Amino acid sequence: MALTTIPTYDAIRAIAVRLVQEHYPVAVAAIIGGSYATGRQTPSSDIDLLLLFEHVDCAWRSTIVAEGRTVELFAHDLATFTYFCKEMDAPGGTVPLAHMVLEGENILAAGDAYARLHALAHAIDAAGPPVLDAENLQRRRYAITTALEDLVDSTHPGEALAVACQLYEALAGLHLRAAGQWSGGGKHLFRCLLAFDAAIAGQLDGALRLVAADLPAGQRAFERVAAAVLAPVGGPLLEGFSLPAPAHWRA
Known about the structure:
Elements: H1 9-23, E1 29-33, H2 34-38, E2 47-52, E3 60-66, E4 69-76, H3 78-89, H4 96-103, E5 105-106, H5 112-127, H6 134-153, H7 157-178, H8 187-196, H9 198-213, H10 215-230
Parallel strand pairs: 2-4
Antiparallel strand pairs: 1-2, 1-5, 3-4
């Protein structure tokens, strides 16, 4: 049955507290993040809960149901948290675990472990994502240029909308990363872009909606916003793009 009411934060917090006390009593921090931490919850929002332990043999993630609410658990110690943020997530331009710590509430008594975790998350966030190297930037420019050609030439509404969705993500991601900003996926991509550049966020949102409602107008709108995003990083790229395969790519 679909959920139709949004529980209060206090009710969600109480569920999380009982869950930790009963099943994870040795946790040294338990942080509610996600939609409930930022006030964007909906009736079906999960409870995102980051559990910090003094030591785990390996980090883990699981989805459970507690008192009728879906809970997404992320379990780490400081070493695994550092590895996942710096080595797994940051190269792709996102650090959702660090942002969960910074935006969320620790529902356990704050001790030294939580203080170190919060300081670490702050340092990771403040450092920003890795700078896009020349090859990565060329890949992105080329992908956007070819996708824009596909969109502008398209006469099939379904195909055009599929390409427009791809182009939205590519343009938003490039605009953020080229400026040294953290990116995201799905709704988080829109939120990151809106916080950084509301004008471009509005143009991209409007262009995507136009493709669905008025394809020629949407095509022109995407041309304009793509030109604005690509101009600071070298413009469109087709002729001259080259990408040699690694030598070990052999049958």
